[in-house]
Design a protein that fits this description.
Blueprint (H helix, E strand, L loop, with lengths): L1 H20 L14 H7 L3 E5 L4 H4 L20 H11 L3 E7 L28 H12 L2 E6 L12 H17 L5 E3 L7 E2 L6 E2 L10 H11 L4 E4 L5 E3 L14 E2 L11 H6 L6 E2 L2 E6 L17 H11 L5 E5 L10 H18 L8 E4 L23 E2 L7 E20 L7 E10 L2 E8 L6 E20 L4 E8 L5
Parallel strand pairs: 1-2, 1-12, 2-3, 3-4, 4-7, 7-8, 8-11, 11-12
Antiparallel strand pairs: 5-6, 9-10, 13-15, 14-19, 15-18, 15-19, 16-17, 16-18
The structure holds beta-L-fucopyranose and calcium ion.
Length: 487
């Protein structure tokens, strides 16, 4: 008898400890998920572009390729001023046009004479790539490169020799300038150019000519953490326009095999494919000025702080990354009106996100995965992206309620999904308890890295975030509520 009781008890103890150690495993990832390099890239959210070359001095947007090297003559080039402007604006990375379509190289490439080495600027001893990459490292920004596949200067453009030349140049950039965080493979190709003096139109087959898989392999070997951007990824996709605006919804997934660099369906790139076969988040490129290069006659047309803030909400706020171009002027510095606009934009943006009202709340969830602490509702207000709230498998219709000791007033909401488990949510709403009922503040389909909703002021002591549709059980890493003062 006693023996039986002991056995029974030890059985119970065993069962209980088994339950503890076999804690409920995390939800299975849904669909494609980000690679570590993509995750690192997506966390940056706001990055910069610096378009700078002979065009800065000729007034063109696409140099023909026949420009003398001496055309490139900045009077007071200052890499730390350029990078400083990017840093003060809150950019986490700066991508430099090391070579634009005109073929002029901002570094002394061993493979061509058409570079800073043959310009009278600094007696041919200058290296813009070196100075910008060093300034980035010094100021804590990552450094990215743009190396135009189309080259209107090269005599061999259109032949296999050019592809070898392109790879040689890429190798120089990937091996001589420290860590590269992003490589921009532009798809543009207008056909005509100088091409070593032949001045003709050359067409290439965008699908086969560059043999991108081999070049991508080369990049992976040299810089495994570099994200590759193009119309087709593989790591980052073009958003389908040059206005800085992501689709709504904007999915992180894409059926990549349908796309090639230079062959893009803008509408699909803008929104992504759902469901999609590959994780290829969108990057929204846009210039602070009408053109990509600095032109004095556009000094009065620099985007205003309000316009930049609006773009931020329509790019970063839709789960994409904002890539804002700030072109150095003929001195080789960011121009005053651009600096002023960037600084005011940063001030307004930072003022919005300085105080997260959600941190004062008590959060509860309609369902918590396995009733376990590591999936609890509090995880959405701890300020950490790597902790998240999750529900039991199959529980899709779920909500979180934030209760405040005192009523709060907010007009901006931010939601983040836990990306390592894929993009799971397909419909959500943010609601405030007002006059005895839930009133919708904002709703949408995709969340992803960051969803920002901006609306009218809501004063309430209860806010609900409701998942209305999801492919599988949701996993949210953060919820924030903010107040934007009208300026
Ligand atoms: C385009 C180029 O043709 C523009 O000149 C600019 O560099 C932009 C970012 O990409 O495809
Ligand atoms: Ca968290």
């Amino acid at each position: 008898m006693t023996c039986k009781i002991v056995l029974l008890l030890s059985g119970l103890v065993l069962a209980a400890s088994a339950r503890n150690s076999a804690a409920v495993p995390p939800p299975a990832p849904y669909g494609p998920v980000p690679s570590p390099r993509q995750l690192q890239w997506q966390e940056m959210e706001f990055v910069g572009f610096a378009h700078f070359t002979v065009d800065t001095f000729t007034g063109k947007e696409w140099g023909y390729g026949d420009e003398s090297e001496n055309v490139f003559k900045p009077t007071a080039f200052d890499a730390s001023q350029i990078v400083g402007a990017a840093r003060q604006a809150g950019m986490k990375e700066l991508i430099l046009t090391c070579k634009h379509h005109d073929g002029f190289c901002l570094w002394p490439s061993r493979f061509t004479d058409h570079s800073v080495k043959h310009s009278s600027w600094r007696d041919g001893k200058g290296d813009v790539v070196k100075e910008i990459s060093q300034a980035c490292r010094k100021q804590g920004l990552r450094f990215g490169i743009y190396l135009s596949p189309w080259d209107r200067n090269s005599a061999v453009y259109g032949t296999p020799a050019y592809v070898a030349y392109y790879r040689n140049q890429l190798t120089e950039l990937l091996t001589g300038y420290g860590p590269i965080s992003e490589i921009w493979l532009d798809g543009a190709n207008g056909g005509d150019g100088y091409y070593g003096g032949t001045r003709e139109t050359r067409s290439i087959d965008r699908h086969t000519y560059y043999d991108w898989p081999t070049t991508i392999e080369l990049i992976r070997q040299r810089q495994p953490m570099a994200c590759i951007f193009s119309d087709a990824g593989p790591d980052i996709r073009w958003v389908g326009n040059e206005d800085g605006i992501a689709g709504d919804p904007c999915w992180d997934t894409l059926n990549r095999r349908d796309f090639y660099p230079g062959d893009a369906d803008g509408g699909r790139l803008n929104r992504g494919d759902r469901p999609g076969t590959d994780w290829v988040p969108a990057e929204c490129d846009v210039s602070i000025r009408p053109g990509w290069f600095y032109h004095p006659n556009e000094d009065g047309r620099v985007k205003t702080p309000a316009q930049l803030l609006d773009l931020y909400f329509k790019s970063v706020g839709r789960g994409a990354t904002l890539l804002l171009n700030i072109p150095p002027d003929q001195r080789g510095q960011i121009h005053d009106p651009d600096i002023a606009s960037l600084q005011e934009f940063a001030r307004r943006r930072d003022a919005i996100f300085a105080v997260d009202l959600a941190r004062q709340a008590r959060v509860s969830a309609s369902n918590v995965r396995g009733h376990e602490r590591r999936y609890s509702a509090e995880n959405v207000i701890d300020g950490k992206r790597d902790t998240y709230w999750a529900t039991d498998d199959g529980v899709i219709d779920a909500s979180l309620v934030l209760e405040f000791p005192q009523p709060v007033t907010f007009n901006v909401a931010r939601i983040r999904e836990y990306l390592p488990l894929g993009q799971r949510v397909e419909g959500f709403a943010v609601e405030g308890w007002q006059e005895g009922q839930w009133k919708e503040f904002a709703s949408g389909a995709s969340i992803g890295n960051c969803r920002l909703a901006r609306g009218a002021d809501v004063t309430t002591s209860r806010v609900r975030v409701r998942i209305s549709q999801a492919a599988v059980s949701p996993a949210l890493s953060e919820i924030g509520l903010f107040y934007e003062r009208k300026e």
